[in-house]
Amino acid sequence: MKMILAVFSIFSLLSLCHASVVDFCVADYTAPNGPAGYSCKKPAKVTVDDFVYTGLGVSGNTSNIIKAAVSPAFDAQFPGVNGLGISVARLDLAPGGVIPLHTHPGASELLVVVQGKICAGFVASDNTVYLKTLQKGDIMVFPQGLLHFQINAGGIPGLAFVTFSSANPGLQILDFALFKSDFPTQLIAETTFLDAAQIKKLKGVLGGSG
Amino acid sequence: MKMILAVFSIFSLLSLCHASVVDFCVADYTAPNGPAGYSCKKPAKVTVDDFVYTGLGVSGNTSNIIKAAVSPAFDAQFPGVNGLGISVARLDLAPGGVIPLHTHPGASELLVVVQGKICAGFVASDNTVYLKTLQKGDIMVFPQGLLHFQINAGGIPGLAFVTFSSANPGLQILDFALFKSDFPTQLIAETTFLDAAQIKKLKGVLGGSG
Amino acid sequence: MKMILAVFSIFSLLSLCHASVVDFCVADYTAPNGPAGYSCKKPAKVTVDDFVYTGLGVSGNTSNIIKAAVSPAFDAQFPGVNGLGISVARLDLAPGGVIPLHTHPGASELLVVVQGKICAGFVASDNTVYLKTLQKGDIMVFPQGLLHFQINAGGIPGLAFVTFSSANPGLQILDFALFKSDFPTQLIAETTFLDAAQIKKLKGVLGGSG
Amino acid sequence: MKMILAVFSIFSLLSLCHASVVDFCVADYTAPNGPAGYSCKKPAKVTVDDFVYTGLGVSGNTSNIIKAAVSPAFDAQFPGVNGLGISVARLDLAPGGVIPLHTHPGASELLVVVQGKICAGFVASDNTVYLKTLQKGDIMVFPQGLLHFQINAGGIPGLAFVTFSSANPGLQILDFALFKSDFPTQLIAETTFLDAAQIKKLKGVLGGSG
Amino acid sequence: MKMILAVFSIFSLLSLCHASVVDFCVADYTAPNGPAGYSCKKPAKVTVDDFVYTGLGVSGNTSNIIKAAVSPAFDAQFPGVNGLGISVARLDLAPGGVIPLHTHPGASELLVVVQGKICAGFVASDNTVYLKTLQKGDIMVFPQGLLHFQINAGGIPGLAFVTFSSANPGLQILDFALFKSDFPTQLIAETTFLDAAQIKKLKGVLGGSG
Amino acid sequence: MKMILAVFSIFSLLSLCHASVVDFCVADYTAPNGPAGYSCKKPAKVTVDDFVYTGLGVSGNTSNIIKAAVSPAFDAQFPGVNGLGISVARLDLAPGGVIPLHTHPGASELLVVVQGKICAGFVASDNTVYLKTLQKGDIMVFPQGLLHFQINAGGIPGLAFVTFSSANPGLQILDFALFKSDFPTQLIAETTFLDAAQIKKLKGVLGGSG
C-alpha cells in the first residue's frame, strides 16, 4: 500500500506532462511538417505497428526496362522512423537489372546483399571511381551525396536492403533529373556537353519534355 | 530627429519579419510538436516567467519506498528550455534514499551535489563500473544512455541538481520498465535470465502485470 | 509502351507519399514554427521564386547616423533558406559608415567585400582583438557569437555581402541592447561599469528608457 | 590541347589542397580519435575495400547459452563508415536463440528480418511495452537508448541485419552490465530491488565479481 | 563451463576492436584537438576520477572589485565532459557582487540558485530585456549567445551553479572585450558611440591598452 | 592595485586551461584531421590572417572550354573556416561561360550575383526543374546535394560569390565524374542509358579512360 503511494509519488513527477516530445516522434501526416520532420502523433495513439513496416517482404515489380525496383520505407511511408535519423529501402534486381546512377542528397547509404551478386560503385568528388562486386552477406557504404549505382552481377535475382543515415534521404536518379523532367534540351546540352540528339533520344524513352 | 529616422531606417530592415524563429523558441503546448521540440509561442506572448522555473525550490516527497524523489524541469514542464539543448531536475534523497538504476535515452547528465553525500555510479558498454562517493560541491558526469544510479551516502538528506544535454532527456527506470509494465513475465525471464519467481515478486511490489 | 510502364513501376514506389519532408522545406509563414525553423509549404505550391531573393540588388538607406544599412535575407524574409543552415545580408557603408559592435547569437559570419575598403574586426573570448582592412574581393570569417564590427575604410561607398551558417543567425547590436531598450540605467551601470551619465546620454540618442 | 588546359585550369583550383576533409573520412586506427570519430586515412591510401565489409556473410557462432550471436560492423571494425552516421551488425538466432535485453546508448536501430521469424520488443520511457512477431522481410525500428530484445520465434535459424543511426552505436547488454561486471552485489540489490541470491546466481553464470 | 564459452563467443565479437570511440571520449590534453573537442584518452587509462570534478566545492575568491567569482569546469578543466555537450561553472556572489554583462558564444546557460537571492537578466535580439529576481531553488535559462548578467540581490553571499549546452561554451565578458584588451580606443568609440574619456577611464581600471 | 588583483582573480579561473577548444579551431594542416574537420592550430599561433582569405579578389582563369572558373575558399584553402560550418567560392563566367551540372554532397549553396546576368537552376528529387535568370544583386539558394548549374546570361563577364553551409561542401561535377574518370564506358552506359559513342566522345574531350 505504502509502496503504491511510493511509486506514485515518483512517477507523478514525471507524468504531469503535456503531450511530450518523448523517446520518439511517430509521424502525424495530418499536421504540418518542418525541417526536422513530421509533427508527432499523440503518444496515446501510437501502437507497435507504427514502428513496424511490412511492405518490404515481397519483391518489387521488376518487369520494367531496368529490370529493377526500389521500395522505400522512408519517413513518408514509415511513420516510426520520423526524427530518428534512419530509414530503409528494398532493392530488387532481376537478372540484367540495374539501379541507374543516382544520389541521396541528404544521407549516406549502407547496402547489405541478401541474395545474388551485385556490382556496385560510387564516384568521389576527386573523380575516383570505387567499384566492387559484392557477394551475399557483403556490406558496402556509399558516402553522402555521391553518384552511385548497383547492377545485378549474377545469373539469379539479386536482393539487397539499403539503409540510410536519415529518415528522409531523398533520391535523385540522374536520368530522371535530366530526361524525365522538363529540363530544356538546350540547357542540358550546355551544362553536360551531351549531344542534343542523345538528350532527345533519352527524353523520348523516359518521357521528358522541353 | 534625424537620429530617430536613422535608427528606424536600420532597425526597420530587421523588423519586417513574420513571427520569426529568433533567439529562442518558448514551447507552445497547444500547437503540434516535432522531432526538434514544441512549436514556438509567438514572441509577443513570451514573458520572463517562460525562462524561469520555480518548482524546484522545495523538496520532492521522499516518504516512499525509495526514500527519494525526482522533480524534472524538462521541456514538457519548463517552456523556456524548448529547443535549447539543456534541462534540469532536482534529486532529493532522504537518509537511505536511492534513485534506482536508470538511463536517459537522449542525453548525458551532469550532477551537482548541493547537500549531503551521494554515492553515484554508471556502467559502460564494456561493463566497467565507475563508482564514486561525492561530497557537497562535487560534480559527476554520466555519458549518454548508460545505466547509472545515485544513493544517499550520508546520514542526512541529500540534495542534488542534475542537468542534461537535451531539453527532453527522457528517463527509463530499469525496474519500472521491467516490473511496473505489462512486459510478459516469460519474456522478461528469457531476455534477462531472471527467475520467474523474482520477476513476479517485483511485479507485485511495483504493480506490473503480464 | 513497355517503357512507360517501366518508369511508372519504379517511380510509383517513390511517389505514394504524404506531403513529404523532401529536399527542402520552404517556409510556410502561416503555420506554426519550431526550434528547427518554419513549417514547410506544400511542395505543390513551391515555385522558383521561393528560392530567389531579389531585395538585395539596391543599396539600403544609409542617410542615417551610422551612415550604414543592414538588409537581411534570413528565413523570416527568404522562405527558401528555411532549414538549410544558410542565409545572407547586404551591408551598405557610406563614407564614414559604421556597422556598430554586434553579435550573431546563432551563427558564424562570412563577409565578402564587393566594393570599397572595409575595416573589420572581432574580439575573441580571451580578449584578443583581430583587426584587418579588407580590399575588394577579400573574405573574412567571424566565429559564432563573438563581438565584431565593420567600418568603411575608403573614401567611397562600401558594399559587402555577409552570409551566415544558419537560416536564422539573429543579430544583437550592443548599443541597441543597452541604449535602445528599457534596460534600467542602474543595472547597466552595475553590469558594465559605465558611468550613468554616459548611459543616459546614449539612451537619449537611441531612444532607450529606464 | 586547349581543352586539356581548360580542364586543368578549373580542376587545379580544386586540387591545391592539403590532405582534405573530403566526401568521407576512412578511419586511420593509428592516429588519435575524437568525439566525432577516428582520424581520416590519407585519401591516397583509401581503396574500395575500405568501403566494403565482408565479415557478415557467414553465421556467427550460436553454439552458446543464448543460442545467438551479434556480429558488428561499427567504425571500430569497418573503417569506411567512420563519420558517416551509420553502421550495421548481423544477428544470428538459432532455434530458441535470444538477444538479451540491451540498449544502444548512442543510436536508433533498424532491424530487417532476412530469415525465420523473430519476436522483438522495446520498452518506452513511460513503461509501455511494444512487442511484435516479425516475418521475413519485415522491418522494425527501435528508438535511441531504449531497452529492447530479439527472440527466435520460429523453428528454424533466424537471421537479421540491424543498422544504426551512428557509426558507433555502442551496445550495453543489461545482464552483462549487472552480472558480468564487478558491480558490487549490494549496490545492485539496492538499485534494482533484486534479491542478493538472484544476483549471485547470475554472477556465477556470467562470471561477474563483487 | 559451456556457459563460459557461450559468453565469450558473444563478447569476443564485440571486443575485437581498435581503441574505439565508445560511450565517451575523455579528453587527452596531450594529443591534437579538433572542432568537436579533444582527442580521446585510451579507454584503458580512463578512471572514475575523469568523470568527477572536485574543484567546485569551495567558494571562489570574491575579494575583488566585482565581489564575485566564476569557477568553470569546462572541457579544458574537466576531461570527462569532452564531447558530451554539457559543462558547468560555479558562481559566487558576495553581497554587492556582480557577474558583469557577458555572453557564451557557443551555448545556452541554465542557472540554479543554491543560496541567497540573485537578480538575473538577458537581452534578446529585439532588445527586449528579461529580468527576474531569483530565490533559492529557482532556475533560469539564458538562450545561446545573448548578453546576460547576474547580481547578488540579497544581503548574504549568493551561490549558483550554471550549466551549459556545450562542453566548451566560451565566455566573453563585455568589459574585458572592450577595456581589458588592446582594442583601439578610437575604434571602440566609433563602433559603440561611447565617449573616448569613458573608454580610457575603464581601460585604466581594467588594464586595457590601445 | 586591488583592482588588478580583482581582475586577475576572476580571469585566472578562466585561464588555467590546456590548449583549449575555444571560440574557433583554425586548421592545422600538419596534424591529423577527422570527420569534424582539421585539428586546431594552437591559439597562440593564430593571427588575423587565418580569418582572412585574399585569393578571391581577382578573376579566375576563364580562357578554357567552359569559359568559367571556380575558385574555392573551403577549409582546405582557408584555415579560419575550419569547423565553423561555412565556406565560399568565387565564380567567374566569361560571356558564354558555363558552370556545368554539379552537386555539393555535403552542403546547401547560396549564390550572390555581383556582376552581369546569370541563368541558374537546380533539379529536385521529384524531377521538378527550378530555373531563373538572376540580375546583379539577386540571391538564389540551392538545397543540399541537388544537381544545379550556372550560365552567363548576359553579354558581359558574370561574377558571383557562392557560400556554403559547410566548411567542406565538396564539389562533384557530373561530367568529370563520368568522363574525366576511369569509370568503365560499359558501366556508364548501363547506368545512364547513354550511348557508348557519346560516352567515348566526351571521355576524349575531358581525358577520361576505361
UniProtKB/TrEMBL annotation, chains A, B, C, D, E, F:
Amino-acid positions noted as binding Mn(2+) in the UniProt annotation, renumbered to this chain: 102, 104, 109, 148
A molecular-function term among this protein's GO annotations: manganese ion binding
Every Cupin type-1 domain range: 54-200
Cellular location(s): Secreted, Extracellular space, Apoplast
UniProt keyword list: Apoplast, Disulfide bond, Glycoprotein, Manganese, Metal-binding, Receptor, Secreted, Signal
Superkingdom: Eukaryota
GO CC terms in record: apoplast
SMART domains, per the entry: Cupin_1
InterPro entries: Cupin_1, Germin, Germin_Mn-BS, RmlC-like_jellyroll, RmlC_Cupin_sf
Disulfide bonds: 25-40
CDD domains hit by this protein: cupin_OxOx
Family note: Belongs to the germin family.
Protein name: Germin-like protein
Organism: Clitoria ternatea (Butterfly pea)
